[in-house]
TrEMBL record:
InterPro entries: AB_hydrolase_fold, Hydrolase_4, MAG_DAG_Lipase. Transmembrane segments: none annotated. This is Alpha/beta hydrolase. Keywords: Hydrolase. GO terms for molecular function: hydrolase activity. SUPFAM superfamilies: alpha/beta-Hydrolases (SSF53474). The keyword Cell cycle does not apply. Gene3D superfamilies: alpha/beta hydrolase. Residues 75-330 form the Serine aminopeptidase S33 domain. The keyword Iron-sulfur does not apply.
Length: 358
């Protein structure tokens, strides 16, 4: 791959994004809307209503730009499943690198995030009635938009945090959907600051009292007038974190920031579903899971257990621990980000991975 965006200062990073990345993405981007209601009905869910927003980037249109470092060869499509309170545009830089490597890229705004439909009036709040809705939506997106952009070539998954937990559930329920999957600091289990059993008991009680749509204690909405709080991102690239903050300030729909008790309850249910031994044994897609050594948002031990159980089921599943990384590995400085990205691209391109299954 070619040179990465210079993140040595915010000014240089912003210039790279504004002058190189954004124009290139705009030239090959199509924004669209997905109606998942039919897929939800087939899965036994009552349709929640509303449509889901997505961005899709066509590798052929990108190749016509003749960007420095572009491969010029088409290798398929990568579907991106974003994390909690995130949005498609946050992945612009990563999408750009995937396009340079010859992949079309499709990114969906999960329900309650970005420009997609929301089920609560509070724009800062994330709530979901059933975690399975996320999984049905992602599978539907991959089966329709993702497959169309893959054009008969491999369809791969990149899934981060909450999106990684959802992605893991999709791999268990749709073993043949993706050719390869990268799970980046996936939310096999959220970090709640208390034990798992106590978290389950607390959120179940609160939801039973009809307070599932209330914000979890001490969580505040995003304040665009306040400077970015970088106290929890001491190792991350300051330039990238400031860029994400800028995007939230510019777009009201990107200011989703808080968990509801109902969302936490569903995250705990997702945890049990993902780690079910029978479900793990259904996975056939080769997995590369990245674990962050300084992760404040998800638990590492459940990731270890997931990989063990998938391996026990006979699937190729690998775990790479990046000791000096925080939760968002793609938000780290280039010294960490580049080798991480190179491992991802090598994994997608390696013909020996999963070859025994062919």
């Amino acid at each position: 791959m070619g040179a990465m965006i210079d993140d040595s200062s915010y000014e240089r990073y912003a210039r790279g994004m504004e002058e190189r990345v954004r124009p290139a993405l705009a030239a090959c981007r199509k924004e669209g809307w997905l109606d998942p209601s039919a897929a939800e009905r087939r899965a036994g869910l009552e349709p929640a209503g509303g449509q889901l927003h997505y961005c899709a980037y066509d590798a052929a249109a990108f190749d016509a730009l003749r960007e420095d470092g572009a491969t010029g060869a088409f290798h398929g499509c990568i579907v991106i499943s974003h994390g909690f309170t995130e949005f498609a545009e946050k992945y612009d830089e990563l999408a750009f690198y995937f396009l340079l490597a010859g992949y079309s890229v499709c990114v969906i705004d999960h329900r309650g995030h970005g420009k997609s439909a929301r089920d609560v009036s509070d724009p800062a709040l994330v709530w979901i009635d059933d975690w399975q809705r996320y999984a049905v939506d992602l599978a539907c997106f991959a089966q329709t938009v993702g497959q169309s952009y893959a054009s008969g070539q491999p369809l791969n998954l990149f899934a981060h945090s909450m999106g990684g937990g959802v992605g893991a559930a999709v791999l268990e329920r749709h073993p043949m959907l993706f050719d390869k999957a990268v799970l980046s600091a996936p939310m096999v289990a959220p970090q709640t600051g208390m034990s798992m059993w106590l978290t389950r008991a607390l959120v179940s009680l609160v939801c039973a009292c009809g307070l599932g749509r209330r914000r979890v204690m001490f969580q505040k909405e995003f304040d665009p007038a306040a400077p970015p709080d970088l106290s929890r991102y001491e190792l991350s690239s300051e330039a990238r974190e400031r860029w994400y903050h800028k995007l939230r300030c510019e777009h009201e729909e990107y200011r989703t920031y808080c968990a509801s008790f109902g969302w936490v309850r569903q995250a705990m249910r997702l945890n049990r579903a993902i780690l079910d031994r029978r479900a793990c044994s259904e996975v056939e897609t080769p997995i590369l899971l990245f674990q962050a050594g300084h992760d404040l948002w998800v638990r590492n031990k459940p990731q270890d257990e997931f990989i063990r159980r998938v391996r026990d089921g006979g699937c190729d599943a690998r775990l790479v621990r990046i000791e000096d990384s925080e939760h968002e590995i793609f938000s780290m400085p280039n010294a960490v980000y580049r080798p991480y990205l190179e491992q991802i691209l090598d994994f997608y391109a390696d013909p020996s991975v999963g070859a025994m299954d062919d």
